[in-house]
Design a protein that fits this description.
about 625 residues, 7-stranded mixed β-sheet, 11 helices
Length: about 625
Amino acid sequence: MSFLTPLFLLLGLLAAPIIILYMLRLRRREVMVSSTLLWQKLLRDREANAPWQKLRRNLLLILQLIILVALVFALARPFLPTPSIISGSVVVLLDASASMQAADVEPTRFDAAKAEVARLISDLGGDSQMTLIKVGQTPTVLAAATNDRTQLRRALEIVQPDPADAAWNAAFALATGAAQGFRDGRIVIISDGGLPDDLPPLPVESIYLPIGESGENLAITALATRELEGSIQLFASVQNEGLIDRETLLSIDLDGTLFDSRRLTVPAGSSVNVTWDLPPGTATIRAHLSENEGDFLLLDDVAWAVHEGGVSNRTLLVTEGNLFLEQVFTVLPGIEAFKVPPGSDLLDAETFDYDFVIFDGVPLPEPPPAADMLIINPQAGGEGGLFSVTGAFSNTITTRLEESPLLQFVEWSEVDVLQAQRVSAPWAQTLVAAEGGPLVQIGESGGYRIALLTFDLRDSDLPLQIAFPILMANITGWLSPGRAFDAPTGLQPGDPVAVVPGASSTAVLVQKPDGSRWTAEVGEEDLFFTETDAPGLYTVLLRDAAADRPAGSFAVNLFSPAESRILPVADLVVGQTQVETEDEGDVGQRELWPWLLVIAVAVLILEWWVHYRGTRWPKLPPISVINRIRR
């Protein structure tokens, strides 16, 4: 046994003052007497004597000396040499990828890896230091170049794995920077393997500590939809990454309700593909595996899909003929337009299936359709109870333009209108006002949005202006927002999503799978949602002056063959170099001071108890009695 701070052993000399104080201690034996008069002279004589007393056996003295010895040795930091890979400056790369959540070791691989790191921290010597790096979706330095075990353990305690691929290239760059400048630098990789093949070589000696025992795993590797004539087809693929044929139950939920379950037999190292015909109107799909004993990674047993983002943009154009409108709604993105004449059966309330209706110079049906509406050149006698037309006016010179996102980039000063209808709509807000009355109005009635253009497009030069397609796009985006985000089908955890809010939107909200919400104000800069850390469904909402409106959903899935292939790698190759496994040639230091501190505290409690209880050493019988017993 050796000591890291042997100078503290000199504190053992404090035992001498403790012993001296006990020798100087004046002891009196309590005796019952009839009077103290005869004892006063005797007490004066004893006080005149030398204060030194014969050192007698005393339990309190022995306990206090034990406490002193334990504290002195703890301060001297004794240690025992033990085999260890911790020597000098060590950089530990802790794999926190999705495969580390496999449960082939109890409780998970990641917990076993943390136990390995804790063992390395315990072996950390006084002249060694450790840098701890979490290798997850975004590599993070948890503790930088320190020999403070408390700090390292605290950082290790709170770290959690990521449900995504690990960014090993970035992690190697961090490790290389942390190990530079140290002649005795070393990098320790704690992982189940599966590192990319294009990693650069490490600049210092490296050691690989493998984690994991089994590679048995079933995974959903694909889930997608496509539009067929009159139906939606769903495609799913289940892969067996293990060495044993497996049976499992694949269940499909549509919009939160169980739709179908099928029992599958998946051969080892192969996949099984399954298709379903889904009912029209399906928005969200969830697939999950169950009854699959022996599957050690549950993270890839569930997947989600969204059919066309869950947003329908079917537009019905009711007109007797308007080439301007037909052309502009043909090119607007996210709009599927259908043209019908007035009185069409498609306006029947029982069969109506559109999200946005445009009435161009035709009367409204009674009752009006349950949808957002753009009404151009409203007609008297066919208001549908939403407004009233009291005549027409020709003094159409613009007097006021409201500051509204719907008029963004619209140059109205060049627009001339021959005449317009005089419309009274109490629920409407005027965006463009003329001397005779409003030209453009918007508002809500009956829970639906309505926009009014009080003039015939052919009685103006608006269709000939660049402002026309811009105004139509802004109004359409406000009435029936198109796809408010650009989310491809194969979104992986960590992939960004571009958000494109409508003209009237003031904020964008995204509800995550755990129920929390991300909020961003709409400005001039592009919006990107980057918090796609967890697999699941994400719901997008657009906020305007009225309310928060759903704008669709997108799915994030762990479709990663590298993470689903959980068979641990025994030998790791980085670049062209094979990384050594654990080397026991180095010597670590197992410090004993925590145990000594525990002993000191325990003895201190015992000393306090003896002091207040007055426990004394048991008296031994006289020698004559012992000899008599022996006879």
